[in-house]
Each structure stands twice: as C-alpha cells, then as structure tokens.
Design a protein that fits this description.
This protein is an alpha/beta fold. The chain has 2 domains: 159 residues, Rossmann fold, CATH 3.40.50.1100; 222 residues, Rossmann fold, CATH 3.40.50. The chain is built from 17 helices and 14 strands. The strands form 4 sheets. A 6-stranded mixed sheet has the order 3-4-14-9-10-13, with helices on both faces. Helix 12 links the parallel strand 9 and strand 10. Helix 3 packs across helix 5. It starts with a helix and ends in an 8-residue tail after the last helix. The relative contact order is 0.16. The model has no long low-confidence stretch (mean pLDDT 96).
C-alpha cells in the first residue's frame, strides 16, 4: 500500500503553481482566507512526500478502510446485456460505504498535524459527512457537517450515522436546501474562524489546493484498479472507464491512472434528472459555461448574470451547479466523454444491479451503472467496461422504496 501511495506522484503534472488546470481552477477568495489556503498548500506539499505521513495513511487505508477494494467481474449483468464485459471497482465495500473515506482520512491527518481543532464540511448524500465524522472521531477532532434540509430528510440514515459518530449536523434551510446551499453555509461558518477550523471539502472542487489534494487522495482508486484489472485480464487495460460526476472526486480517482493511456475511452456521467429545463438537472459539463463558484473557476450552470442556476438530481450527491476544474480541462481537451443519465435510467440501473448481481448501489453510482448498461450492448463481447461503483445504496433504500417501490414490484 505504501508503494501504491507513492505512485500518486505520477499525477503531479497538474495543476500549476497557482492551482490551474489549463484555464480552470485557481483561487478566488478573500485575502484573509487566501493566507490560510496558502498555509494549507505549503503544509500539504510537504506532507505528501513525508515518509511517516505516507506510512500512517497507508496503514489506515489497509487496516481501517479495508483497501485495496476489489475489482469484480459482473458476469450475470454482462451475460444478460450481451456485448462488452462489465467490471466494478468496489468502492462500496470501503469502511463507511463509499470512496469519500479516501480523502477524509488524508484531510483529517493534515488538519491534526496543522494543529486545527475542528473539521467543517458540507454533505449532500451524506457519504462525505459520514466519512468525515468517522475520520474526526479517529483523530480526535470536533466535526460540524452542514446539510440541506431536503437532503437531511432524504438521507436520514446517514444523518443518524454522523450524529452517532459525534458530529454536529447543521441543517441548512435557505434556497433549495440541498448541496449548493450546504456549501454556502459551510463556507460562511469557516470564514468566521479559518484559523482553528479546517474546511475538509468533499470533492475535487473549491479553491486551490483542494482540487489537487482531493484528487491525489482519491487517485488510489485508479492506481489499484489498473493493477487489479490487468491481473484479471492477462495484462490488458480496460477498453472503457465509467464513473458518475457531481463535483467529480470518485471519477478523478478512477480516471487519473488512465489519462495517458489513449486506448482507454473514458466516460463521465452527469445527471440529466427530469430533463434539461433549468432546475431539472445538474449536467454542468454538458449544459454549463465557464464561470466562478465557491472560490474556483470551472464549468457552471449559471444565468446571464453569472449567478448559479437551481439544480436537481434524484442523487443528492450529484446536485451541484459546478464541477471540479480538472474535469473542465478534460472536457475541453476531449480526453473524457461527458454524457448524461436521467433519474429513471439511474433508478432502473439501481434495481438491475441489485437483482442481477446482488449488489445494491448508491443512486449516485447507479448513474455510472446505467451508462455501462447502455454502452455494453453497443460493443463487442471482446471489449471491457470498468465502472467505479463509488458507494453502496443502504442510505437510499427508504427513499427508493417510497418513491419507486411500487413501480418495481415492492409492496410498501
């Protein structure tokens, strides 16, 4: 595991010293906060090369998280669909149930070494909140999690988990009461005391160094997957990669290790929700334009005044009007194909994977599964698809049963 973590250095080409991936990224924040961000950048650049830090993180990944997460051949689903063979990178099997633990442990250790007293963050689906609350408990820091009231009701099991772990869940009651507003509220709280608090951003978004830092921590997913897939397939790489994209951390985690492998086609899957009317989707890269949100430049769903538009997705972790700056760079360079999946397609994939492979995926991950289901029959049986199954669906069961149960034969 230590050697795998050291391989993250392969991805240090981007961003540049100012935090830009091409024209995207950077830091657009008040001067007071910029000084704190500069301090975080300096400390992070030190510790990511520090042998003792790497060793500590590697041991936590192996013995606490349960890494490496396996790559699984979904033979039942592949046979049913015909066409390409589907594999799953099982991030759902991590402790806390998703990929988020990969970066929250790294952030928590950094915050502890910097002498911070409290971790503060936003959450949508609750997976980042649970992972951060877990990391905070482990390293002995206080933890405040800001969450929109809509998501609190929708993802109640994760709210309970956060509180059991000792975190304070702060309801956000303005605007649409979802992820974007949770970020707004967390930033506002952080600005009141950036000295003793550490804002552990939940994706590859925000001002520099967070898009870089979260990408680095999540890159373990792709580094593992590349070796595991080759071991299962006589040294070959997957022909296609698929991952869902909200802010984009799980996708960058998988994609990073394969970006230089031109033979590998890469698909980032955004939520088209109920359709492409404003407020009915969160397909930022597919329908947005460059703008500035939450201290960084990237593609943004915005109105003519540059204000973020309302967004929506059945997946609480995907309903964000912005996206990670490296994803914006990869869109413009055409290295990654960004596509969309609707609510109905995602829910259908949720049940398909559950009933065909015995794996209940998170609704966020179901968007990626849906794209694989759509793609596989179009390809020959000799081709392969590797899907990042970024989280498990325990948190979504009550919501799915309530809103879609009868449609899929459940008597609730």
């Amino acid at each position: 595991m230590i050697e795998l973590l050291k391989r993250r250095a392969e991805f240090y080409e981007f961003p540049d010293d100012r935090g830009y991936f091409g024209e995207y990224g950077g830091s657009f924040i008040p001067e007071q906060l910029q000084k704190i961000m500069d301090e975080i950048t300096v400390e992070y650049l030190k510790i990511r090369e520090d042998e003792s830090y790497i060793k500590e993180l590697a041991e936590l990944y192996q013995y606490f998280v349960g890494r490496p997460s396996p790559v699984y051949y979904a033979k039942n689903l592949s046979k049913k669909l015909g066409g390409a063979q589907i594999y799953l990178k099982r991030e759902d099997l991590n402790h806390t149930g998703a990929h988020k633990i990969n970066h929250t442990l790294g952030e928590a250790l950094l915050a502890k070494k910097m002498g911070k007293k409290k971790l503060i963050a936003e959450t949508g689906a609750g997976q980042h909140g649970v992972a951060l609350a877990t990391a905070a408990a482990l390293v002995g820091l206080e933890c405040d999690i800001y969450m929109g009231e809509v998501d609190i009701a929708k993802e109640h099991p994760n709210v309970v988990r956060m509180e059991i772990l000792g975190a304070r869940v702060v309801p956000v009651s303005f605007g649409l009461k979802t992820l974007k507003e949770a970020v707004d509220a967390a930033f506002e709280a952080y600005l009141k005391d950036p000295v003793t608090q550490f804002y552990a951003i939940g994706s590859v978004v925000g001002p520099h160094p967070f898009p870089m830092m979260v990408r680095d921590f999540q890159s373990i997913v792709g580094i593992e997957a590349k070796e595991q897939f080759a071991a299962l397939n006589d040294g070959k790489l997957p022909d296609n990669l698929v991952a869902c994209v909200g802010g984009g951390s799980n996708a960058m985690g998988l994609f990073s290790a394969f970006l230089k492998d031109e033979s590998v086609k890469i698909y980032g899957v955004e939520p088209s929700g109920r359709g492409f009317k404003d407020g009915d989707h969160a397909a930022t890269l597919s329908k947005g334009t460059p703008g500035i949100l939450h201290g960084f430049k990237s593609y943004l769903l915005q109105d003519e005044k540059g204000e973020p538009l309302p967004v929506y997705s059945v997946a609480s972790g995907l309903d964000y009007p912005g996206v990670g700056p490296q994803h914006s760079y990869l869109k413009d360079s055409k290295r990654v194909n960004y596509v969309t999946i609707s609510d109905q397609e995602a829910i259908a994939a949720f049940f398909e994977l559950s009933r065909t492979e015995g794996i209940i995926p998170a609704i966020e991950s179901s968007h990626a599964v849906a794209q694989a289901i759509k793609l596989a029959p179009q390809l020959p049986v000799t081709e392969t698809i590797l899907v990042n199954l970024s989280g498990r669906g325990d948190k979504d069961i009550d919501f799915v049963v309530k809103h879609y149960g009868k449609q899929y034969g459940l008597n609730y």
